[in-house]
Specification:
The chain is mostly helical. It has one domain: Hypothetical protein af1432 (Orthogonal Bundle). It is built from ten helices and no strands. The structure holds 2'-deoxyguanosine-5'-diphosphate and fe (iii) ion (FE) (3 copies). GO terms for molecular function: bis(5'-nucleosyl)-tetraphosphatase (symmetrical) activity. Its EC number is 3.6.1.41.
Length: about 190
């Protein structure tokens, strides 16, 4: 399937604001893929599909996690469920077979320790794409032009601080492991 076909399918699946966010993640992922010498095509596909499961109802997300034996996620905030389910949908509905692309979708919300370049790019692009306005985002955009690991580290530091301050429920262990790992770059 070519990228334009995939784009029009994703557009039909998402509310227009979320589709705009998705196109922002695609554009930022393309730039980062060029800057950090990894496949632009993989970055485009992973970015386009990263939030594909964002609007599935929680009971359906739960069913998909149960079928895939990914029930650990059910112990954490439903806000993180769309990421692993997005990877399942990308595989089942969009016939994506590349495990690096599937993992970039799966870990785009939590991150994880020792990510691949593609995983780091989608994780970071989701946080810094042009529509994002959260405090500190400008500093991370600047870091992203210089050092991918430092930018990922600062994103994790900000996310962990934000989640702790908001009392958003338990922080997923992959998020904590990612922060423990990437702190070395700060
Ligand atoms: O789907 P997006 O809005 O584009 O962004 P995302 O997939 O990064 O999801 C962000 C949401 O997920 C945000 O409300 C914070 C929340 N989140 C991210 N990591 C964790 C988390 N929530 C909990 N409880 N635990 C986490 O580890
Ligand atoms: Fe997301
Ligand atoms: Fe994110
Ligand atoms: Fe997103």
């Amino acid at each position: 399937m070519n990228l334009e076909t995939l784009k029009s399918q994703v557009k039909q699946q998402l509310p227009s604001k979320r589709y705009d966010h998705t196109l922002g993640v695609v554009a930022t992922s393309e730039q980062l893929a060029k800057r950090y010498n990894t496949s632009v095509e993989s970055a485009q596909i992973a970015a386009l599909l990263h939030d594909i499961a964002k609007y599935l109802p929680n009971d359906l997300l739960k069913e998909k996690l149960e079928s895939a034996k990914e029930t650990d996620y059910l112990n954490y905030s439903p806000l993180v469920w769309h990421a692993p389910v997005g990877a399942i949908v990308a595989k089942e509905t969009y016939q994506i077979k590349d495990s690096d692309i599937l993992n970039a979708i799966k870990y785009h919300t939590t991150g994880k320790a020792a990510m691949t370049t593609l995983e780091k790019i989608v994780f970071l692009a989701d946080y810094i794409e042009p529509n994002r306005t959260q405090p500190g985002v400008e500093e991370i955009r600047e870091l992203a032009t210089k050092d991918l690991d430092v930018a990922v580290a600062q994103t994790l530091a900000n996310t962990v601080a934000y989640l702790s301050s908001k009392g958003k429920g338990d922080i997923h262990p992959d998020t904590l492991a990612a922060y423990e790992y990437y702190r070395q770059y700060l």
